[in-house]
Amino acid sequence: MNDTVVTLVGNAATGVDYRETPTGGVARFRFAVTPRRWDRRNSAWTDGSTSFYTVCAWRSLGANLTASVNVGDPLVVHGRLRVRDETLDGQRRTFVDIDAVSIGHDLTWGTSAFKRVARANTALTERPVDMSAAASAANAATATAGNGSGSGSGSDAGPRSVGKPVHTQPWLSEQDESAAPVGAAGVPTGPL
Fold first, then answer.
1. How many Å apart are CA 61 and CA 144, to the nearest integer?
2. For residue range 67-78, what is the model confidence (pLDDT) as tens digits?
3. Per-residue pLDDT averaged across 39-57, rounded?
4. DSSP secondary structure string, 86-126?
5. 8 Å CB contact between 168 and 192
6. Taking the mean position of all CA atoms in its chain, how far away is CA 125?
7. What's the pLDDT tens digit per position in 142-177?
8. CA of 174: how far to CAs of 64, 112, 144, in Å?
9. Strand stretches in 17-73, DSSP E
């Protein structure tokens, strides 16, 4: 892999154009990068010439980008550099594209609020569950709830897990998950 990986700091020059393709959604926008230099002679900051790049973001990055970025937003773009030459109307032109790996707001110029998105396919992040253990735990919970005692002091009621968190996010330890605040849907909403 001899890819040229770059990190650019600039502003979104156009709105984000999102399209569905057979291999997944793709978002595209133009990105303007203007270098600023300190001019010692005039004792002032001066702007250099602006470079424009076409940024492409695929799949979930593209969908999240479409919902998060507006024209003029200061951004940091990290991705693979692609340079291509094309002939249009008899003139040879060079285009510079960035296949984005990561994009974020440049917090030098303002604040941003992060909001986690629910993933459609959780099979990639969840651990496989032992179905026999899950079934016996469900049966024990049903038996405890159905006996009407409420205290669970009987020895035949089965083990109870009062106060022990259910692992909805397997990458968190029990301590981390029990300390995380829980939202309306029962999913921890705190920091990971």
1. 45
2. 999 999 999 999
3. 93
4. EEETTEEEEEEEEEEEEEEE-TTS------PPPPS-GGGTS
5. no
6. 14
7. 555 444 444 444 444 444 444 444 444 444 444 444
8. 30, 30, 24
9. 17-21, 24-33, 36-39, 44-47, 51-58
Non-local (6+) Cβ contacts of 135 within 8 A are: none
Structure-token pair, residue 189:
């909403």
User: Which residue's structure tokens are 């300190």?
Assistant: 38
Contact 73, 43 (CB under 8 A): no
Amino acid at residue number 88: L
Give the 3-state secondary structure of 124-171: HCCCCCCHHHHHHHHHHHHHHHHCCCCCCCCHHHCCCCCCCCCCCCCC
- With a CB cutoff of 8 Å and minimum separation 6, the contacts of 43 are none
Name which of 6, 63, 67 is nearest 33 in CA terms: 6
pTM of this structure? 0.58
Distances (CA, A) of 133 to 47, 129, 146: 65, 8, 20
Encode burial over 154-176: b for 16+ CB neighbours within 10 A, e otherwise.
eeeeeeeeeeebeeeeeebeeee
34: tokens are 């203007």
- Residue 98: pLDDT band (50, 70, 90) is very high
- What is the average per-residue pLDDT within 26-55? 94
40's tokens: 């010692």
